[in-house]
Amino acid sequence: MLDYGFKEEHTMIRELVRKIAVEKVMPVRAELDEKEQFPWEILKVLAEADLCGLYIPEEYGGFGQSVLAFCIATEELSRVCGGVGVTFAASALGSTPILIFGTEEQKRKYMPEIAAGKKLAAFGLTEANAGSDASGLETTAVKDGDYYILNGTKQWITNGGEAEIYSVIAMTDKKKGARGATAFIIEKGTPGFDFGKKEKKMGIRCSATRELVFQNCKVHKDQILGKEGMGFIVAMKTLDLTRPGIGAQAVGIAQGALDEAIKYAKERVQFGKPIISIQAVQHMLANMATQIEASRALVYSVAKAIDNGAKDYTKEASMAKLIASDTAMFVTTEAVQIMGGYGYMREYPVEKMMRDAKITQIYEGTNQIQRNQIGLSLIKESARK
Amino acid sequence: MDIIVCIKQVPDTTEVKINPETNTLIREGVPSIINPFDENAIEEALRLREKHGGKVTVITMGPPQAKEALKQAIAMGADDVALVSDKAFAGSDTWATSYTLAQTIKKIGRFDIIFCGKQAIDGDTAQVGPGIAEWLNIPQITFAVKVELQGDKIKVERLLEEANEVVEVPLPCMLTVVKQINEPRVSSLKGMMKAKKTEIKTFSAADVDADPLKTGHNGSPTRVVKIFTPPPKGGGEMLCGSTEEMVSSLISRLKERKTI
Amino acid sequence: MGIKILQDKCAGCTLCVKACPFGAIKMETKKAVIDLTACTLCGACVSTCKFNAIELIKEEAKSGTADLSSYKNIWVFIEHHLGEINPVSYELLTEAKKLSEDLKCEVAAVLLGDEKIENGIDELFSYGADKVYLSTHAEFKEYRTAPYTRTITEMIKKFKPEIFLIGATTTGRDLAARLAIRVNAGLTADCTGLSIDPKKKILNQTRPAFGGNIMATIISPNHRPQMATVRPKVFKRIKCQGAGAKVDIIKFDPVINKEDLVVKILGLIKDESIKVNLQEAEIIVSGGRGISDPKNFKMVEELAAVLSGAVGASRATVDAGWISAHHQVGQTGKTVAPKLYIACGISGKIQHLVGMQGSDTIVAINKDPDAPIFKIATYGILGDCLEVIPALTRKIKELRG
């Protein structure tokens, strides 16, 4: 890999996460996938290694609020297993709203336990009729004295059921449209808050995806993130900040597939020589590697820019997610192709990587939505000139 | 509770390969690691400390490069480490090594338990742990698979060939552990940061008052007189045909040899 | 004692760099340089140098045993569990007998136990013991490091054996390591070959090192007794003809200090499921990674069952938790030497090979034609274990009706 001029601690994080990924995740990834089993054992190891608070400031028990560090860790985990990667990353997605918009008290209450890996977080935005178009949200929160009464169902929530802490967006005033949404912190176990069935997915199958079901769920007003009516801003700012993480997940999956393809191409002998000596195969590998490096470079530079205090990075964050997830899909498909029949078999890991890769083009904003976002930014930028 | 763990830095023998042309070991690219059984020893010491409090000190004898192994011990959670290193130690066998480590432990002073791995994967002798216990005149319990502190005694389960033996031993004592005792933790980020900053304490032969007649080559009763690569065993017969045919010809050959 | 490169003779050929098993030699400005912190003075480089440019200076310090010539005879430690003698002790008696012919000396068995232990003595003579040093005490009923070490140390001081052989079992390794320090003796672990140097009349002890990648021959020139542990099944036990007539038992008073009794044996946990008599089995069927799934150990078990054999396993499968460690064959597991060893899906890393290559007949089943296991196999089957094993099981069942 190119020397990106990382600080020593970033190199250290990469080495540590790679060790965990290779020693603890690789031996069980096929089994976790097959059994659709949530990787609690691995999360415990990550917690013991102090890796759950990479994006959380030191004052809340974290490692120092570094998006880059978080991206490196997500990439290395995803290189071995995209499901473990997203489980790790989704907790960051769930706790980022608290980090950005939480009061000091809320941060003190929730962040140290998340940083220590004692509790997982999850983010609840999507609903059956509100995916890419978030203005269609139907979950309501009706004010009742010092409390809000929530009703509605969130769908496809990563870490749903396993996490303890949920950042949930609900409509407090439907008439106001986008300005009528509010973000709440809701703890597992709150009366009226329950979970739907665990979804059966194509890929990232060790991760847990469930419905969050609210039936007259009573939440104190102190649990509001920001102010009433700021729900969409909370969601958008959160997604901007975590999008490079999805990019990193995609880069990891792609890199893992490339590793496997190269290893196989060196070992597989056809026509009397290893197939890696065939130029057609080399060109495939070259394209894969080039796209991965381009994606990685963009993910890292956006992450670094955020860490350096950049204010407006919505467009670039979308670009990083877009190119990396398209790359992941392309590279994993090519890896299966290079490995031929073996690649298609579950005995080898690349078919799983291909299944895992697909979701990166879909969640946290489909790639079409990312393009819209980029397009919109271009229009805004040109108007400013 | 003061616990001392003795570790060894070893080449990862699972990575060692033989050059078929020269019949020599290819050491290039073979990483140095903490002897795997010693990682179990560190882990058990850390667990006892977490449960009962105290201090874990990890020591090793070896060349200056062995500092890397000690840094990894800090990253895992050791409180203190020490390297004992001297040119005078060159050529030490297990007799001299156990003497040198025992001297180092005396220099460190207080201890309740000494942990060692059951053996090192490069030498496979399993002799240094008991040797240390002898030099320090304390009881030894080898091949521990379960350790339970009960006041000033320890209850230990030993993994023997056909059964596990349960024994009780008073402190202080020396225990060697097998890999089944636990799953060593991975380093933590905070531990790695600490390791990076730590200056590794190094003792020389003089620092630990080592008798020159008992250290290094002089102190080693054994001498290696020859090192050679085991002669490759001649290849046998590859059976051919379909699965059924291969199985049949195997059975008829085994019957011929009166093996079955 | 030391080693140096003679600069004027060194031609910079790098042969010694490759020969050094410890990576202690590097090239600097086209001359070899020895890193003394890594060097063990093994001398492997000296013989490879074609220019006689490496000098190993062998001045010996005076730390050895005084009056070497007063040490005579070969001793074998008799290991037993509650009176049942471990077969490795018979194997060592047989080997000791062979060595004693070169040294023209006697073989003695060292036996500690409670009063009942005397029942087993006759067998010792039949496997080649000329003498038995017997010490009985209630505290010797079960092996414990401290009381055994003290009494045997006193025996050694009094009767001065030249060579002392001990089985490389958990008990033997526990005892030998402690004893060697106390009596100031050299000890070589896990020997696979023993012979007497015809000129110097000392014991050449050959053992694997570096996970079995290399072999080393080790001597203890200046210390007595010359101690070695030997793994079970490395040597065969053979009964001596016409033995049993001579019964020379020397009773030795036990020496026990109160401090030797601080370790208390509370009991044994004998889980029948962990009873895997690998080392006694005549046929072993072992599974490796190539059987793909822990479930498939069932197939291996079935084949073992129709052959009335035991189930073995590679380190990889044990490490992966597919099967308990009691089944592990190899460097860090057990050494076995059955009549028939069937390796299913085991690639044959050297660590495994050193534990089973003494088997009479080795059958290897593997789908990788380059698997090293085929190099030592008597018969090789290139194919998928999951097809071959059931086919083999079926055929043998048919055969046995």
Automatic annotation (TrEMBL), chain A:
SUPFAM superfamilies: Acyl-CoA dehydrogenase C-terminal domain-like (SSF47203), Acyl-CoA dehydrogenase NM domain-like (SSF56645). It holds the Pfam family Acyl-CoA_dh_M. Its cofactor is FAD. GO terms for molecular function: acyl-CoA dehydrogenase activity; flavin adenine dinucleotide binding. InterPro entries: Acyl-CoA_DH_CS, Acyl-CoA_Oxase/DH_mid-dom, Acyl-CoA_Oxase/DH_mid-dom_sf, AcylCo_DH-like_C, AcylCo_DH/oxidase_C, AcylCoA_DH/ox_N, AcylCoA_DH/ox_N_sf, AcylCoA_DH/oxidase_NM_dom_sf. Keywords: FAD, Flavoprotein, Oxidoreductase. Residues 122-217 form the Acyl-CoA oxidase/dehydrogenase middle domain. Residues 229-375 form the Acyl-CoA dehydrogenase/oxidase C-terminal domain. Belongs to the acyl-CoA dehydrogenase family. This is Acyl-CoA dehydrogenase.
From TrEMBL, chain B:
It comes from the Bacteria. CDD domains: ETF_beta. Residues 22-212 form the Electron transfer flavoprotein alpha/beta-subunit N-terminal domain. SMART domains: ETF (SM00893). SUPFAM superfamilies: Adenine nucleotide alpha hydrolases-like. GO terms for molecular function: electron transfer activity. This is Electron transfer flavoprotein small subunit. The lineage of its organism: Bacteria, Bacillati, Saganbacteria.
UniProtKB/TrEMBL annotation, chain C:
Residues 1-30, 31-59 form the 4Fe-4S ferredoxin-type domain. Keywords: Electron transport, FAD, Flavoprotein, Iron, Iron-sulfur, Metal-binding, Transport. This is Electron transfer flavoprotein subunit alpha. GO terms for molecular function: electron transfer activity; flavin adenine dinucleotide binding; iron-sulfur cluster binding; metal ion binding. CDD domains: ETF_alpha. Binds 1 FAD per dimer. SMART domains: ETF. Its cofactor is FAD. It holds the Pfam family ETF. FAD binds at residues 289, 314-315, 328-332, 345-352, 366. Signal peptide: none annotated. Belongs to the ETF alpha-subunit/FixB family. GO terms for biological process: fatty acid beta-oxidation using acyl-CoA dehydrogenase. InterPro entries: 4Fe4S_Fe-S-bd (IPR017896), 4Fe4S_Fe_S_CS (IPR017900), DHS-like_NAD/FAD-binding_dom (IPR029035), ETF_a/b_N (IPR014730), ETF_a/FixB (IPR001308), ETF_alpha_N (IPR033947), ETF_asu_C (IPR014731), ETF_asu_C_CS (IPR018206). It comes from candidate division WOR-1 bacterium RIFOXYB2_FULL_37_13. The lineage of its organism: Bacteria, Bacillati, Saganbacteria.
